[in-house]
Amino acid sequence: MKIKSNEANFLLVLLIIVTMTFAMRASNNMAMTTVPLLARYFLGYNNTEIGALSALMGLGTFLASSLINARLNSGERRRIFMISSMGYAIILPLFYLATPLSLWILSAVAGVVMGNIMPNIITSAGMLPDRKARERLLSIYTLSLSVSLVVGPAIESAILQHFSVRSSFLFFAPFGALVAAMSPLIKFPEGEEQRSGASKVISNPGFKTATYNILAYNIPFSTLTAFGGIYAVSQFHASYSEATGLFSLFFITSLLARLYLSVRPIGGVWAHMAISISMTVLGLLLMTVAGSLIELAIALLVLGFPHGLTYPLSLISISRTFKPEERNAANSQFFAVMSLVGIVTPMLTGTLADLIGLRYVFGLLIIFVSALAPLIRRNAKAVDEATRLVM
């Protein structure tokens, strides 16, 4: 039986997006979760300094996605994308040689190149004209993120049983090389794109929904990324291998949630967002009261489900409410918001952790997530009504 041309095109785009995403996110997550361990236990950083280090990486990503990527035309973005991909392949193994000073520089540069790479992969995944095909590809794109986040920590956990924390960066260097090699295959919109002003993007109900939704999860997730390993080691005496292995448990349930979205296209977004918020609150509560490593693992399993739901639901909200020529601006601004969370959150939570302890920081996050729930509900319902998806 012959494969139709549009099906063949879908499969080709899918293969490119999934492979590039897997390589980028597996290595990127390794860096984000391992840099704090390297900084704390090998270079003598305290929690406040680790928070500032994570914030610096987030600042680089924010500036690149909001001030560079969102303002360039398609051809210019493609050149910057390929240069950044090559830069990523070079910088990743350099973390192996990091000193207390160079770690700041490496983290800042890594943030910039990530800000030039990730929004363009998102935009490429959302270029298909058919809505169902586009949303399925976006869901599979986020599914590939989850697969990389399961496999990546599992690989690193195995590495750390036999090698040093520094060595992880060398073992993941081939992923960076794969990102550089595949960067020419990522598609960019043809011709001149419509420039959507920041006010037009921000006032869109789909963008508001995506933003409030991602804030409700990314702030807890940024805290978990920066301090989850430290929490496991300091509070529950986990080994470095166990601390990184815990993230695999977290991403397994995230993978299951995204697998669900990939095989079953959603109707209204609000019902799924409500489930995500509820599970985030429950997971944070379990993190706060956990008394053993097993209980911490259960909390991470619960928190994985909303992690799997939140990001694809936000991308779907944007894809449903923006025209194709407007999506790069919307995706860039959305990724900039995510990066801004990565700047502010580690600094605040790191300082709070030094003052009151990590356990109580996770408890305070419950209040923040609960406060965002009404805003998410109002805007998500507006998206559902605008796209005639309310049952």
TrEMBL record:
Name all Major facilitator superfamily (MFS) profile domain ranges: 169-391
Single GO MF annotation: transmembrane transporter activity
ATP-binding in keyword set: no
Top-level lineage group: Archaea
Matching InterPro entries: MFS, MFS_dom, MFS_Exporter, MFS_trans_sf
For this UniProt record, give its keywords in alphabetical order, as a comma-separated list: Membrane, Transmembrane, Transmembrane helix
- Which PROSITE patterns does UniProt cross-reference here? MFS (PS50850)
Transmembrane regions: 49-68, 80-98, 104-128, 140-163, 169-189, 210-231, 243-261, 268-287, 293-313, 334-352, 358-376
Q: Quote the protein name from its UniProt record.
A: MFS transporter
